[in-house]
Recover the amino acids of this structure.
């Protein structure tokens, strides 16, 4: 009797341990699920082979990879997993653009775009050419066409590939050697990253956007804060964002140091994906949706790091320095290096102020940009253009602003904006309406800042020289950039008077 | 790929945190369709007074005298000593290409950006993570002694200082293996082609919508 009791107690205890372990193993994060479902091979040394569903290519990081294939006599593993488009180098000025590749004035840029065309032809890879209506910034066209889907692994030789994570995909930027590796093997060699959850609770107040939220996150955790982690963005603020807003947030995961940014799949995701050109249809759609419904972190899943922010605390943000973490609310003042104790940060702040030509203690609203750039894979989608147009409607760009560029992220965005008359609003305000591409985000084409010029930019990097030699970038949301264009200095867009 | 076993070389400083890839190699040089020739444009905006153009002869350009790589004592350096989060920003492999082309074989920092770190190993460049305090000592020793050299032994995973002190470091065994033997990882992965194929078959049956052809 006693013995029986003991035995069954032991068995019960054993079962409890097993079930605890079991449930701990069962509760997975979104990243765990995406990783597990694509795991081809786990090796003893900690590395793994991960299968890649979609590979996006552009002209800048692919030529050396194709050259590698040629030299080794190799062929792509699966041609139909690849999709290419030129975006970084293409001219956006309509006159120069209209003549296609042959019309690109800079011969070095022209050769690079032509090389992409040649490589895609030689290796039989689908490419949306320079003046194809489907061309655009890789990270805009992928989701827009349904070429990137929930549950996919997505890679591209570009660090902003995390953008596609907004769909509930495992998307990450890779280097050129990895581009070659993926082309040839359809796999990536990786070590699993840690899990990080960034939860933004509550709600964003009127005038505060996804861009402000992600800048606030970077301000909080720093540009190395997410290093070694895959970030999942969650919380009420993220849940209530549109897909476009979620893409803006995931896009800048890399500015927080993380290769991967993700948002769980929900009704907003499904509604967005449904009906896209390459999205599944009919029975395929139903099967896909059934699988996608599981693309969220399970209750109780373990995150190595959790960061929380309150949506209500976030104000419109402006960067004042040369790193995205050098960011403050628009009503703040430029920091004073003298008050910073840590010597590395003090030096960095002083150096940034010198480069940016700013005085310590000066209010951010007194900074006067000479140029304004609305575009890039962070903020060139239709919603971004609508937000900017609402601000400039019926108003004029300030005389002190030399140039205000509006560059749609893709041919489809451009068409949609024109159908809504947004282009006319921009043009009437004295802004330039351009052809799709990366443009002044990194200034590989003719769109750039001159030395010393300040720019209100909706892009993602304010590094020294990023938008042109000696240029001074201030990262802001589309509404904030548009308001700065009209006012001639930064303003708190929450106080903006909109025209009906 | 070049192998890396033991390397002894002069140490040059890049005394700032968050050195981004735009700083390592500015965008105008990314227009090249080659893998080589980026060395003269490494740290272009910090190194020269004028704005560099691709294809230009850099030997005639005005230098910024304060920049370490322009100083006599750091000529021929093959080890770069720097601060945290080195290589942040874009995924451009042109950054390790430029460091390699200049002559660097090793970068020592308290931390690296993920993509850059990974890209280094594909190009025979060894990124070493050391604690901030260790990096600080190296900075001090290097500043004090002209011609300061370090020996880096990848097999043993240690750095040997001129004063004989050895500092251990660690590198993931896969990366170490590839670097020690100069292995091309594509060839290694292709040895597992059967595993990839069988995964693919199963995955295609399970999620056929992921295999719809784009045209
Ligand atoms: S828009 Fe800017 S950040 Fe985005 S892919 Fe183009 S260059 Fe990179």
């Amino acid at each position: 009797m006693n013995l029986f009791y003991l035995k069954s107690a032991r068995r019960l205890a054993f079962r409890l341990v097993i079930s605890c372990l079991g449930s701990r193993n069962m509760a997975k994060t979104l990243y765990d699920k995406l990783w597990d479902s694509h795991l081809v091979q786990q090796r003893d040394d900690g590395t793994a082979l991960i299968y890649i569903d979609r590979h996006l290519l552009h002209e800048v990081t692919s030529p050396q990879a194709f050259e590698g294939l040629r030299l080794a006599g190799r062929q792509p593993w699966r041609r139909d997993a690849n999709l290419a488009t030129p975006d970084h180098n293409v001219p956006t000025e309509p006159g120069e653009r209209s003549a296609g590749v042959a019309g690109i004035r800079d011969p070095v840029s022209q050769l690079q775009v032509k090389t992409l065309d040649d490589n895609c032809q030689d290796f039989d890879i689908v490419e949306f050419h320079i003046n194809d209506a489907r061309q655009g910034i890789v990270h805009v066209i992928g989701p827009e066409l349904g070429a990137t889907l929930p549950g996919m692994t997505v890679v591209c030789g570009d660090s902003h590939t995390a953008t596609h994570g907004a769909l509930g995909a495992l998307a990450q930027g890779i280097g050129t050697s990895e581009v070659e590796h993926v082309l040839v093997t359809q796999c990536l060699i990786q070590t699993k990253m840690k899990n990080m959850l960034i939860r933004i609770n509550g709600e964003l107040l009127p005038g505060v956007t996804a861009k402000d939220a992600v800048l606030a996150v970077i301000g909080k955790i720093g540009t190395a804060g997410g290093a070694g982690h895959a970030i999942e963005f969650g919380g009420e603020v993220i849940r209530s964002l549109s897909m476009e807003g979620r893409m803006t947030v995931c896009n800048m995961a890399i500015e927080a140091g993380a290769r991967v940014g993700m948002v769980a799949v929900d009704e907003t995701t499904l509604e967005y994906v449904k009906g896209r050109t390459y999205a599944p249809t009919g029975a395929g759609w139903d099967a896909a949706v059934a699988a996608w419904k599981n693309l969220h972190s399970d209750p109780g899943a373990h995150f190595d790091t959790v960061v929380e922010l309150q949506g209500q605390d976030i104000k419109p943000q402006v960067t004042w320095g040369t790193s995205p973490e050098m960011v403050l609310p628009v009503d703040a003042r430029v920091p004073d290096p003298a008050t910073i104790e840590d010597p590395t940060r003090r030096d960095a702040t002083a150096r940034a102020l010198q480069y940016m030509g700013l005085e310590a203690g000066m209010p951010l609203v007194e900074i006067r940009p000479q140029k304004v750039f609305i575009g890039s894979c962070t903020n060139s989608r239709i919603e971004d253009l609508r937000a900017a147009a609402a601000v400039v409607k019926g108003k004029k760009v300030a005389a002190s602003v030399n140039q205000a560029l509006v560059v749609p992220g893709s041919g489809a965005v451009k068409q949609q904006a024109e159908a809504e008359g947004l282009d006319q609003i921009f043009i009437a305000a004295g802004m330039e309406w351009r052809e799709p591409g990366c443009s002044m985000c990194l200034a590989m084409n003719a769109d750039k800042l001159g030395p010393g010029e300040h720019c209100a930019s909706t892009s993602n990097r304010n590094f020294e020289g990023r938008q042109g030699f000696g240029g001074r970038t201030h990262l802001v949301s589309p509404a904030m950039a548009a308001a700065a264009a009209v006012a001639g200095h930064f303003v708190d867009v929450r106080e903006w008077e909109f025209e009906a | 790929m070049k192998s890396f076993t033991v390397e002894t070389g002069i140490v040059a400083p890049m005394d700032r945190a968050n050195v981004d890839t735009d700083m390592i190699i500015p965008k105008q040089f990314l227009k090249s369709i080659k893998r080589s020739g980026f060395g003269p444009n490494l740290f272009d905006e910090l190194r020269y007074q004028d704005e560099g153009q691709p294809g230009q002869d850099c030997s005639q350009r005005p230098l910024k005298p304060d920049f370490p790589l322009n100083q006599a004592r750091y000529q021929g350096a093959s080890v770069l000593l720097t601060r945290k989060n080195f290589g942040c920003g874009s995924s451009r492999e042109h950054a390790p290409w430029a460091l390699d082309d200049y002559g660097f074989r090793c970068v020592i920092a308290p931390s690296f950006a993920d993509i850059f770190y990974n890209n280094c190993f594909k190009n025979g460049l060894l990124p070493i993570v050391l604690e901030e305090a260790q990096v600080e000592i190296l900075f001090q020793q290097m500043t004090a002694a002209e011609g300061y050299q370090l020996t880096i032994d990848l097999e043993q995973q240690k750095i040997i200082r001129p004063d004989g002190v050895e500092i251990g470091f660690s590198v993931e065994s896969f990366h170490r293996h590839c670097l020690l033997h100069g292995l091309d990882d594509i060839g290694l992965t292709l040895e597992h082609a059967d595993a990839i194929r069988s995964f693919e078959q199963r995955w295609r049956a399970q999620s056929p919508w992921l295999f719809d052809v784009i045209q």
